[in-house]
Specification:
Layout (H helix, E strand, L loop, with lengths): L9 H22 L2 H28 L3 E6 L4 E4 L3 E4 L5 E6 L10 E5 L8 E7 L2 E7 L6 E6 L4
């Protein structure tokens, strides 16, 4: 008596692999807050890096350096012609010293050659999540942490 051994076709294997990949992508998106959450974290890290770069430039050049952010235009600028846009899906709030604002509605943080700054906070938000980028005035330290959405 011979048994017929039935195998699995290549097409069936590829279908199972594609199905597992799709399920993994959906599960990963649900656990990390989806695309909006990834976009929020990415943009917050990018702005944090530019603030740290601005502080480093102030110390290295011995000259005050300015980071500016325009929440309405959704743009930021840093020294050495660095600039960027903030995605439409993210909310932006800036708190800082009024004395260094370039124009009404724009915010700025100035870093000094000794590393200190005028201080401030940039908050980015998406849905119910927020990331705060805090700059300490005394030391100029730039910190990124989760925050509460401002209403």
């Amino acid at each position: 008596m011979q048994r017929k051994i039935r195998g699995v076709s290549l097409l069936e294997m590829l279908l199972v692999i594609a199905l597992l990949a799709a399920i993994s992508v959906v599960a990963a998106g649900a656990m990390t807050g989806g695309f909006a959450g990834m976009q929020l974290r990415t943009e917050a890290k990018r702005i944090t890096a530019q603030l740290r770069y601005t502080r480093t430039q102030a110390i290295a050049t011995g000259q005050p350096q300015r980071f500016t952010i325009d929440p309405q235009a959704r743009t930021w600028t840093a020294p050495n012609d660095r600039h960027g846009d903030i995605p439409e899906k993210l909310g932006i709030a800036f708190t800082g010293a009024r004395e260094v604002q370039p124009r009404r509605g724009e915010g700025a943080i100035v870093f000094f050659p000794d590393g200190a700054s005028t201080g401030g906070r940039v908050q980015l938000s998406a849905r119910r999540a927020a990331m705060n980028i805090d700059v300490t005035w005394l030391t100029g330290e730039v910190r990124l942490r989760r925050g509460e959405v401002q209403r």
